[in-house]
Amino acid sequence: MQEQKLQNRDKKYLWHPLTQHKTAAPPLGVVKAKDALFWDEGGNTYIDGIASWYTAMYGHCNEKISTAITNQMKELDFVMFSGFTHRPAIELSERLIQVLPSNQAKIFFNDNGSTAVEAAIKMALQYYYNKDEKRDTLIAFDDGFHGDTFGAMSASGLSSYNGPFEDFLLKVIRIPPPQEDTIDAVLELLDNICKNNSCAAFVFEPLVQGAAGMKFHSAKGLDLLLKKCQELDVLCIADEIMTGFGKTGKTFACDYLEHKPDVLCLSKALTAGMFPLSITTCTQKVFDAFLSDEVAKGFFHAHTYSAHPLGCAAALAGLELLSSDEILGRRKYIEVAHQNFVLRIKHHPKVKNARSLGVILAIDLAIDTRRYGKFRDRLYDFFMDNGVNLRPLGNTIYTLPPYVITNGQLQKIYGAIEDALEVF
What we know:
The chain is α/β, with parallel strands linked by helices. It is built from 14 helices and 16 strands. It has helices at residues 2-13, 51-54, 63-75, 87-99, 113-129, 150-155, 159-162, 183-196, 219-231, 284-288, 309-322, 325-345, 374-385, 407-423, and strands spanning 30-34, 37-40, 45-48, 106-110, 137-141, 171-175, 199-204, 208-209, 215-216, 235-239, 263-266, 278-282, 351-357, 360-365, 388-389, 396-399. Strands 4-12-11-10-7-5-6 form a seven-stranded mixed sheet, with helices on both faces. β8 and β9 (215-216) form a beta hairpin. The chain is globular and about 65 Å long.
């Protein structure tokens, strides 16, 4: 079979992410994708129930976005962003500022989510360095995930990713995400940490911790944490790489908060999965701390492909789609459908917890299992055998589908989840 040949060719040279190659099954050869579907070489069809790691929110091979990239490619393919600028980057900055939290003023380009967080952490540390203050401590949530570069990994709290590198990371003190009944205790803990350490920044995923298993926390509690940090002159860094661009029901999860972050990180749905690009935004106050007659006080951090014109063109087209009546309607449909499905299954004896926010649906099964283990792999295989691409996180089944998913396709995902509850 041609598919097997592809798998053999892959095995010869390729090293895949998040994979133990000694025990993992061969990767599936994918040859085509459109809207909420993709096809393997055998002609089998799968519903992309997680929008390929929350990127392809407007569907695969979206013609509006691919046309924007093609047209841009014919005009300006690439130019380095140090010493030069171009229309797509300027237009994207102008458009983003209109929808970002109102305190955001400057936009810095990177090339993926991890590097967006990396830049944010370096901004925070240098912000105080430029003011002749040495601050060496970050605050972050338990079980957070912010990426795999060293600064982002330091802020992350999942041992399955960080284990071999713990001795080499930045100083981070962790706090539990606030729930409605723990807000006061978490606030007191944060206050003590800030008063007894030289804290530069609080790094957090707002409202939903994605890699932790789509864990939700209190918007009210998070808002009070930001208020406390800003009172104590600790910068707040919001990692909206997963949550941004409509997934939580608002354009950004931070739109649920009264107090806004000082720095915000964006990627994934920014370019709808069409192009690797990310952004770190900040307030004018943060930017101004880098203005000096001393060259070394500038932010000397760069990526070769910063502000890539093709990525900017994709992001501009994506923003148009995000605010279109069609996408707004689909987002609302999915949100309501998720809520109804939660009501339908939350009392199932195998369901420990079911929840939804915007287009995010998560179900914790009443079973203890490792994050990457045989039970999780069996669940994954079950869904794939039923034509649905879901990627369980331990005992958590979740879906975060493309906005363009059809009603029938969404119901098929729900049906596969219900079938899994009966089989496992």
